[in-house]
Amino acid sequence: MRRSIATVSISGTLAEKLAAIRAAGFDAVEIFENDLLYFEGSPADVRRMAGDLGLDIVLYQPFRDFEGVAPERLARNIERVKRKFDVMRQLGTDRLLVCSNVSPDTICDDGLAAEQLGALAQAAGEAGVTICYEALAWGRHVRTYGHAWRLVNTVNHANLTLALDSFHTLSLDDTPDGIAAIPGERIGFVQIADAPRMQMDVLEWSRHYRCFPGQGDFALADFTAQVVKSGYTGPLSLEIFNDGFRGAPPAATAADGHRSLLLLESLTRETLQAEQAQAGALYHPSAAPAHAQWQFLEFAVDDTARAHVANWLEKLHFRRAGQHRSKDVTLYQHGSAAIVLNAEPDSFAGAFFQRHGLSLCASAFRVDNAREALERAAGFGYQPFLGRVGPNERVVPAVQGPDGSLNYFVNEEPGQPTLFEADFALTDIDGPVEVGPISGIDHVSLSLPAGSFDSWVLFLKSAFGLEATPAVLLPDPYGLVRSRALMSRDRGLRVVLNASVDQHTAAAETVRAYHGTGLNHVAFNTGDIFRAVTEFEAAGVPLLRVPANYYDDLDARHALDPAFLDALRDHNLLYDRDERGGEFLHAYTETLDQRFFLEIVERRGGYDGYGAPNAAVRLAAQARQRALAAKEAREPQD
Amino acid sequence: MRRSIATVSISGTLAEKLAAIRAAGFDAVEIFENDLLYFEGSPADVRRMAGDLGLDIVLYQPFRDFEGVAPERLARNIERVKRKFDVMRQLGTDRLLVCSNVSPDTICDDGLAAEQLGALAQAAGEAGVTICYEALAWGRHVRTYGHAWRLVNTVNHANLTLALDSFHTLSLDDTPDGIAAIPGERIGFVQIADAPRMQMDVLEWSRHYRCFPGQGDFALADFTAQVVKSGYTGPLSLEIFNDGFRGAPPAATAADGHRSLLLLESLTRETLQAEQAQAGALYHPSAAPAHAQWQFLEFAVDDTARAHVANWLEKLHFRRAGQHRSKDVTLYQHGSAAIVLNAEPDSFAGAFFQRHGLSLCASAFRVDNAREALERAAGFGYQPFLGRVGPNERVVPAVQGPDGSLNYFVNEEPGQPTLFEADFALTDIDGPVEVGPISGIDHVSLSLPAGSFDSWVLFLKSAFGLEATPAVLLPDPYGLVRSRALMSRDRGLRVVLNASVDQHTAAAETVRAYHGTGLNHVAFNTGDIFRAVTEFEAAGVPLLRVPANYYDDLDARHALDPAFLDALRDHNLLYDRDERGGEFLHAYTETLDQRFFLEIVERRGGYDGYGAPNAAVRLAAQARQRALAAKEAREPQD
């Protein structure tokens, strides 16, 4: 289907917007009236500018408060709309979005509304224009597409069609299931917007919190499947009012918009195929990896940082498992968790270290089909990357994530040397290294600049096919942190995204320290957390201290067995329990390099979360630790 | 009355919070349970810490979901609350806030609720504790103070009292008028919070958007007057859940909290006096200036900046009216508008220039009683300032505003030399200088860091007694700008505050350029704007160009006389009309020094606004101008 976006969705002047929209891959655009109003030039100039870029102007919008008015007002409304027809002729577009009347004095009379929409259709017909009539969720009388369609169907004029907007339907919890029954040629335009579920006035919600498909909580594939089944073949057009997008650079926003449409199309295709319906001309990406898991995490280091991290890994009983054949790169393993320390100056990691210091510069994912995974990610517009490869070393395909870090796709063929065997001189044959209580990587948690949070959601959903939980707000003593978890269906991959709402939280400091890319922490799985923390503490790993008051409250909330509670307290373990009795026990290390830290987790009984109720306790303890460290740094030691 | 604040209202560790609260002048504090939970130390340690600071812990909170439960649950709830009594004993406080039950399975039976609250009161009596029972606005059954009071009154036990919270009452549009009839000794605690009017779920509104009294839209003086009339003599305590405060430095937030209580007390006192009721022990500040207006605006400059600004002023037909007797300071006048350019290096202005560059470093206000005005501002905690004064020059009292700039209070005595005559060698006798179409200063508009917006609202309300309009959001092409106007009752002073929600707007750039202090623009009044812009353009003042599309839309909206519309278009004038036919005609200059700009306004027929509907057009035109300037700076000139 044709992919379009409304100019109101991104920031900048009209010229900047159109250029960014074209560069992102759209072939069509809706002109939002205010953008024209503020433009220094005529509508014909806008037409030329769009035409030079190869963009079709498929809609002009919005026209407000037309139908259901007193008869003497109708004449004025017709006059008003005819002026807009003149503008449209200059713009070179033949579709006008007309929203249902929101005025308090709108007359509640479907017969009158239909009669006046009929007059509108006739004027439109004379001007060679098609009206797309849309029910606003906060319209005075017409609020649902079903109601709008009854009026359009009553008028039954070729120049009056129905406009759909997913926000107006899904924000009211109205079902989209009636859309398929509307003849597709009677639907003049389809707008798509997602949004997080919020308990607020629907007009405010719509004006400030819309987002791209996949970034919010709406079931948009079901909505779009209904649209396809109706036979509609016009554009799918994003119309996003989002305060964040208004303040973000337009090119990146437009690129996310385009890939969000591709993602929506691909999910709609799956929905339709599951319903054994025709999928139409929807985007068809390569399949997402079915069973991805981390192959390794790669840190950019220099000699000093390597010694520092290696020291920590050794205390956590990681084994130095190999040395890269051609680069200054070391491999550490513990269970299935593998950490690569890359100190090669003349490399991607070296450049990353230059900019970000000690940081997570690459993640490698073991998948069933690396070529297919790369094709999928590249299809969604992520940049493929090929690094320098030594003789006999494996060529590993990768794409760059939103922060510029690399994401490798690795598949191991039976009977062939593994990636580690090919690239590293191993101290032992490749395989899980059972040297201690860690079994593997549970999840990776990233601290992000607030403006890139939703870009990461799209990246992980589109390139990896992950699913997202709703966002939560976590209280740090110095401000709020927005957090959202994404995971694969089989839970082989779990990623937690954090973005600080405020400037003074630990997450915000991490983002600044890393210049925009930031690991928050890596969580390792264990089957026996009491053994793990006992062994690690004995080896000198400093664990984050948990206040005694936490355990008193834990007891009041969960009424735990006293011996178990004592054990938790003695080991500085945090505890959570889900509704089905699943349990989560976890401990944190103090921060490493004053930026990131490590977590040891044990999941019991199918617990699927991340201990969010404990986040405030952890953040307060970390703040205390940072304050102490700052105080020590200020006061000369005796 | 005693002034208290809940620890949840400000950011930081518990130790940081208590220190900031004490430094701000509070003598009492509520301990919010989570702050204790995250504290590394016992409740007795908290008691010692507060005691050492001289802070009383007047309340522990909250205890949730007690009443209206099945009988078997009651025993467990009594056990739960007894543990909290133990904590309170250690904390050294005897008041516990108990919120009305929000649980979906709460039993709707006032008899049962009263019976269980009776059991709670008895347990509290045995422990020497007083329960303060509060109706949450989103309680399952008990949502109003009236309902909560009926239960408390039914139980009729000395250890069960009513807690009031202005948010819970005013958010529901419940009237506070019944409070005065409740016996004051039966009210155990009073919490105060303001909030902007918002159309959203009341729980979300309460948790994220509360603010200090005077910063929001609630009629808090009426609420507090009712409390005083009841005979309540306990603390007034701020309980503010605000996302911004969570991320802001605690000392400044606490200081604003304290002065907001002083302001509320003084407004409550006025309300009570108007009702001829006893004002109790409420704060009584010196009177606000009755007829303040700008005496002058003072810019910090160096030689280059002075030449630049002087050039602009001369094009606007300002007259160079005098030279300071002892400092490198020049006075310009046009009508009653006076601009002072201060290039004295060894002075406050010199230091201000060092840090902020060309900037507004001081504002002088002509008032009837300067000493009283200073006392008032100092009483609200603003820092008095005395600059260097030469022989025979006037000593002018001043306070520092939230950005550190000076605010002088000037009164002129009949028969005495004026300030300008005393301090300046004038080219003419002092008085309005009728050299052109400008009559005076209409308003001053400031660009602020987002975090100081509400501090400025409090400053202008408390020190100057100004009134505020509700905040509006203005769309800049690169993000949203929050804007709010404050004005004196006689409209002699009008100040517009702007804070950018996003990083890339012109307002945000101004804040960065000025390092936290920033004039956005000065608006000058004229009685004939067509004459004014004609003369100024002829003198070489570059006016901001307004796109032709704006006038087409203006015509569609207001159906203006064609000749008038042409005149507006020809002069690049913006136009607004209010509901009573008042009109606003205004024009902007291009930006001066790439940061601030000037506006010429004509008010007709009592128009009282600032042309907010035109802000988007102005912001877009300025963005275009900045983009052009940036392009020219990049491209070498031929």
Automatic annotation (TrEMBL), chains A, B:
Keywords: Lyase, Metal-binding. InterPro entries: DSD (IPR043700), Glyas_Bleomycin-R_OHBP_Dase (IPR029068), Glyas_Fos-R_dOase_dom (IPR004360), IolE/XylAMocC-like (IPR050312), VOC_core (IPR037523), Xyl_isomerase-like_sf (IPR036237), Xyl_isomerase-like_TIM-brl (IPR013022). It comes from the Bacteria. GO terms for molecular function: 3-dehydroshikimate dehydratase activity; metal ion binding. It is an enzyme of class 4 (lyase). It catalyses: 3-dehydroshikimate = 3,4-dihydroxybenzoate + H2O. Pfam families: AP_endonuc_2, Glyoxalase, Glyoxalase_5. Residues 293-412, 440-579 form the VOC domain. This is 3-dehydroshikimate dehydratase. It comes from Paraburkholderia acidiphila.
